[in-house]
Amino acid sequence: xxxxxxxxxxxxxxxxxxxxxxxxxxxxxxxxxxxxxxxxxxxxxxxxxxxxxxxxxxxxxxxxxxxxxxxxxxxxxxxxxxxx
Length: 84
What we know:
Elements: H1 18-32, H2 44-58, H3 61-66
């Protein structure tokens, strides 16, 4: 994903499968490899963030969020006041 000037980093809570997280950790460790002491110095949270960002860019998330039908789940969600 290309990061441009019109982007912002957001921190969100996501629900993913444990198998997905296990795969991210295993593949990140394989790609980074151990240091001379045998430790893996890779921040898997940053790796997961980058993977999701790249996936959203490739999957055209921007068009997905523009479609009103993708917000139907909110009709069954209790209303909470906006913090803004």
